[in-house]
Amino acid sequence: MLEGLKGDARAYTALLAELAVRLRAYYARRLGDAQDDAEDLVQETLIAMHRRRDSYDPGQPLTAWVYAIARYRLIDHFRRRKVRAAVPLEDAGALFAADEVEPAMARRDVSRLLDRLPPKRAALIRATRIDGLTNAEAGKAVGLSEGAVKVNVHRGLKALSAETTPGPGASGLGAPAEDGANGDVAP
Amino acid sequence: MRTQALIEDLASRLEPSSPKTPRLRMALLMAGGGAVSALVMLVRLGLRPDFLAASLTLMFWVKFAYTLSLGLLALWGAERLGRPGLSARRPFLAGATVLALVLLIGGTDLVLAPMSARRALVMGHSAMICPWLILGLAMPLFAAAILALRGFAPTRPALAGLAAGLAAGGLGAFVYAFSCNESAMPFIAFCYTLPVLLLGLIGSVVGRLCLRW
After folding, report:
1. Among A14, B28, B64, B106, which is least packed, fewest CB within 10 Å?
2. DSSP code, position A116
């Protein structure tokens, strides 16, 4: 996105193409019987993102920005179509459920965030929080005590959360990066 | 149109743009609105006659600090609400804290005062016109704030409009404070706060109507 903002058309094309795939999945899950509208919404969202691209704050996770716009377009779509309660109640959970795409995007954000930390510390966080090793196991691999690993991971996470505090409920789909950092992506 | 074709079309018409642009636009618009408001205040109302003498009192500064912090916090909130995916929790909490503090101090003053003096503490000598003057002075700022938000992408238009209204109200009250010579805390807590909140309400309605995109 940053390259796109600078005017790099090739990077921008690649980004939009990737986002189109994500958006297609996002809308497909939420439209129920009205799948025909999904592609229209994808295109509308891409245009909206393009027109309002300077509303992206480089300090925020791109996914949060994209999904907030996607959600806004979806609500707008429902409003125009006057869709009300078109989803049977027992399926309504799907409307609000997080789908698999967002965690995938969140993982991208997480690894980008981890890149900002010293590599050793990032590796420890990855090992303990994402790959699910214990502190002792992770410490053995790099020759640190269990306590040292704990301290390192704690400081690393603290530094990250200091950098990214969008606050909970930033949008309905809020801050996927933080969820990831808290360990939700761990198996 | 095929989506891929659309993407290539969008990319081919890509011009460099910067996240700073809408923020700069907002700053310029608010400065313009503030200048109009200040001009109207100077010409129609004039500075308070005791401006220099009053500047030695605490209340003189409390009024400025209160209104300016409300206005700037709300403006910060509006800027964040203009960006999809960002939350304005912190500015709103901070603003609510300032508001609560002023209401608390004003309320305490009122409770401690003898019954007979209370009415004068709240109403001063200008309670009937002060809120209206603040509303009027805030109008150019309100227009500027709404216009500025249209340069962003608010995904919650009513909330963004609320923030714009509160910002305009706070900054309008700040301008009015140059002219107003009231100095009782209960008066500030009532007559300054009321129009700010009212404008916030108006803002949320206007936002719902004008900030959709």
Report:
1. B28
2. T
